[in-house]
From TrEMBL:
Name listed for the protein in its UniProt record: Uncharacterized protein
N-terminal signal peptide: none
Gene Ontology MF: a single term: GTPase activator activity
Gene3D superfamilies per record: Ribonuclease Inhibitor
Amino acid sequence: MASFIMELSGGRELVNEKRAEELISAITVSNPTHIRLSNKSFDNGAATKIAQYLESLEGVTVADVSDIIAGRPEDEALRTLNIICSSLKKFDLVEVNLSDNALGAKGVEECKTVLLGDNIQRLYVCNNGLSAEAAELLAKILIREASVVGAVEGSDSKKTPPLELLHFYNNMAGDGGARAIANIVVACPQLVDFRFSATRSTVAGCESIAAAIATLPNLRRLD
């Protein structure tokens, strides 16, 4: 199937509600399969306008929402993340890019709706300032209780998206975060591309990652 990419025109900028309306009116792709909001910093009014536009679409499979809250106060940034990610939950996404947003654990929680997608194959969480707590929350969201008809009540059955690519670069995960990411890796045996570098992990954390990597039968790219 052909890919149609929607991206907002112009360079890096702070975007308010009025500017968001101008950017939306300039979009020429009618049925995008990929949406790219990067390098724009949205206030809450702008995020609401963008969300309304996204909710009007059908068939989006790739969402690049990297670098969309730069320079925003924490409360405003968190609300913007929630507004935009919530508008994406209707789509059957196979790729999500949350990189270059100062997330922390609070930001991960606000992005939960998009991270709960059942068919995410490629996930980018790079340069997000993710601590051990944030990495643990990410793992909890991705590795969740399976809601399957016929599942035995009280069983420890888990459900994870079919991740083939996981990039977790330039975060503050430390050893606790490394163990959390290792749990994700073990839960996603179909991974072929894994990036885990510049994460402030010591030997203990890296040993957890190494053990997890050893379980991957199809891994082709490792950083």
